[in-house]
Amino acid sequence: MSQTAPRIAPLEPPYAPEIAEQFNRIMRGAPPLTLFRVIAGNARAWEKFRAGSLLDRGPLSLREREIVIDRTCARTGCEYEWGVHVTAFAEAARLTEEQVRATVLGDADAGCWSAAEQALIAAVDALHERATLDDAEFAAVSAYYDEAKIFEIILLCGFYRTVSYLANGLALPLEESAARFPRW
């Protein structure tokens, strides 16, 4: 993105006490992301974002969750959110440099993934491309993930597609310390 400022101005400190508390809860004391500061400037959008949020742990492991999020953000071309997640969670999720790269540049069947992860990535790709899973794709993901995890996969794809729409549509500048998409 060539812009240095988002299309809608983010909130600037000092924040209202309720907003500051919400930022601290989400960011665990770190400065709030531009994404959160922009959305929080619109009370209804901020309320809906937090209410529909999947910022909790959920039934997927951190690794599975991050694979879904990173792949969704990569497929939507959202370098902003992909970079934030890679920087914050890739190491804790035990994603190798090759795997991080593959979330952007690799196919679902890349050899760096386990069979379960390949099914997971194929499901993310199908949801991105067609907003559905065919019977074979559902069977493949069902071989490794129970119903609660399948719901979470689908919900995460939808939520992070929305996050990607927000970040891309509002032209959020990349966070200074966040990872950047790998290039060929």
Automatic annotation (TrEMBL):
Residue ranges constituting the Carboxymuconolactone decarboxylase-like domain according to the UniProt record: 43-124
Name the Gene Ontology molecular function terms of this record: peroxiredoxin activity
Which InterPro entries is this protein grouped with?
A: AhpD-like, CMD-like
Q: Show the PANTHER family listed in the entry.
A: 4-CARBOXYMUCONOLACTONE DECARBOXYLASE FAMILY PROTEIN (AFU_ORTHOLOGUE AFUA_6G11590), CARBOXYMUCONOLACTONE DECARBOXYLASE-LIKE DOMAIN-CONTAINING PROTEIN
**Any idea what this protein is called?**
Carboxymuconolactone decarboxylase
Its taxonomic path starts at: Bacteria, Pseudomonadati, Pseudomonadota, Alphaproteobacteria, Hyphomicrobiales
